[in-house]
Amino acid sequence: MHFCVGHLVRILLSTMGGKLSPFWKTPDQKESESKPILPRQLDAEDEIPNYASINDSVTSCVPCVGIARRSYVNCPTCQGTGRIPREQEKQLVALIPYGDQRLKPRRTKLYVCLAVTICLLTTSLGIFFLFPRSITVLPAGLKASSTGFNATTTSIYLNMTNVLNITNNNFYLVTVVQLDIEVLHQSLVVGKTTMKTLLNMSPLQSGQISYMVASRILDDNTYNICTWTKVKVHNILLHIQGTLTCTYLCHSEQLTFEDYQYVDCQGNATLPRPLYHCLP
């Protein structure tokens, strides 16, 4: 009897063992079954950068969940996710909300006014300093003279050394390159000279040029006046015309001047002259 009962129990356990095995598991079996079969995929937040507004506003680029139900269109860049792939970060442009601070101009009026003021100031200063001003040419008079006579031809040989004052009224360098002189007596040219010179005139400075002209006067009356010993005054009037050529700022300019001088034609004379002729 006992043998039959034990044999029956063994048969029942053997027949029900396959069905009860899922419910009776060891701890090692449970731990191995809890592990996933496929490797875990990285979360989208770990791989994809988030482009949000610096305003922390509600309108920043956030996932557009449920927005389509309100007649909105998903962002063509992020496709409504609010994020773009990291490998396309330098290729795609994230949308910035209209109210973002990066779109608001900062001190634009100040910068524009400052730029306009600087441009106007620079232009005004350039015009003020580069605007051409006059170059003053003023004959200072006779410095020295020497006279010679030829009784055969009744001619007078007169050598004069004159002084010319030049004033540069500009704010830049002026160079004197040439001086042309003509001496006239009774409307006739009796002497002529051309002098190549190189005088650099500093800004707002004055300079001086000495030039010599050799003249020959063929006139009987003038010869008699200069050689007549009974007359104490032996002066003749000469008309001097000149042209001064100056260069500045890649520009050439010719300045004309004229002067009338009384010259003692009886003998030699040397007259001291001031360095600069003062205007009355």
Describe this structure in words.
- It is a single chain.
- It is built from five helices and eight strands.
- The protein is α+β, with helices and mostly antiparallel strands and 280 residues long.
- The strands form two sheets. A four-stranded antiparallel beta sheet has the order 5-2-1-8. Strands 4-3-6-7 form a four-stranded antiparallel beta sheet.
Record the SSE blueprint.
Layout: H1 2-20, H2 27-34, H3 44-47, H4 108-130, E1 135-150, E2 155-168, E3 174-185, E4 188-201, E5 206-218, H5 220-227, E6 235-248, E7 251-264, E8 269-270
Antiparallel strand pairs: 1-2, 1-8, 2-5, 3-4, 3-6, 6-7
TL;DR?
With 280 residues, the chain is α+β, with helices and mostly antiparallel strands. It has helices at residues 2-20, 27-34, 44-47, 108-130, 220-227; strands spanning 135-150, 155-168, 174-185, 188-201, 206-218, 235-248, 251-264, 269-270. Residues 19-24, 35-42, 44-48, 51-62, 64-68 and 272-280 have low confidence and may be disordered.
* H/E element order: HHHHEEEEEHEEE
Q: Whole-number average pLDDT?
A: 76
What percent of the residues sit in helical stretches (DSSP H or I)?
10-25%
* Secondary structure tally: strands: 8
The rounded distance between the terminal residues' Cα atoms is 163 Å
Strand content: 35-45%
Query: What is the structural class?
Result: alpha+beta
The strand line-up of the biggest sheet is 5-2-1-8
Shape: rod-shaped
Low-confidence stretches: 19-24, 35-42, 44-48, 51-62, 64-68, 272-280
* Sheet with most strands: 4 strands, antiparallel
Radius of gyration: 55 Å
Query: What is the number of helices?
Result: 5
